[in-house]
Amino acid sequence: MMKEKFKKLGILFVAVAVVITVVLSFQKTKQEEKKETTLQIPAIFKTKPTATYSIKAVVGETSAVNKIVTDPIYNQMTITSVDSKNTAICQIVSYLVGNKRYVLVVPTGKGTTTIRVTGKYNKKTYGYDIKTQVTNPNNVKVGVDLSSYQGKIEADVLKKAGTNFAIVRAGHGYSTEKNFSHFIKECQKDKIDLGLYWYLSSKDNKTLITDQEVLDQANAFVKLLKENKLTSESLQYPIYLDLESDTLYGNVPEVIKIAYVESLAREFFDVLAKAGYKNVGIYANKSYYETYLSNAYFASIKHKWYARYGYVGTKPTITLNNQTFTPDMWQIGDNFKIQGISKERIDLNYYYLK
Fold first, then answer.
1. N- to C-terminal Cα separation, the chain
2. Residue 166 and residue 145: Cα distance in Å, rounded?
3. Which of 87, 126, 195, 215 might form a disulfide with 167, Cβ 3.0–4.6 angstroms?
4. Gyration radius of the chain over CA positions
């Protein structure tokens, strides 16, 4: 009996020893991991609150801050704010991809300014000032697209911010843009070049769009243009058809989806052409272009407005009908600030002259 007790106690002691060894080993491993992942603080932060970098940039080409800032702290810190001292020269915008935030430098006008990225690492705040010298050797135009989402923005504010053009939404589905006339008059008054777009969608914005609904919207668009005395000659930029509504695709079988959307676009553009508006284009993001707008008809349309957020570089391309195209207009993003406008965020575009 005693032997059995001692035997059990021996087993218990061995088990406890194993547990203690495992715990100590785990703690040691965690301490080593912590030691390995804690970065050495750069010398610059021991004397100043910010580190400074200098770059040269050109309008029409974006840059990633994590390729500019070489300090390893930057890639580990949690970004808390981004800012530009002069958005007429350079914008800065951040994107969340998964749980990682990326920051892009977006040049908008000639000159020199400073952009700042601030973040936290190990409960301390770090700042990075990037002195940015911007040129525009290729005469790339910078513009915005406007709708009621931005409220009644005054064009003189856009002009002072270096805006070259505005693409104004004329309508969406069966609704015309409530601020359309205001935007048109403002842009004409301050000599901001104009283009237009229409968001094509079914009447209830749920069910598959019909041919009649397409014709109704195209005719409503023409009526709006006539009411505002807008001729084809008075528009410096194309009229774009926004083809991102899911009501254009709905339950159409996959094998005929592209052909179906083509028929809708043709109907819409035919109405415009008969009214004298032939300078047209299409708008979509990468997924819609390459999934639904990839046939010979859409490839043949001269003006392509391409929404590609977070892209680093210049002139992003798309592949349609086994051909590679560089769209003439690139919508960079939808979260930009304009100097003089406190609340509204705005979409920003580059237009590449042929």
1. 98
2. 5
3. 195
4. 28
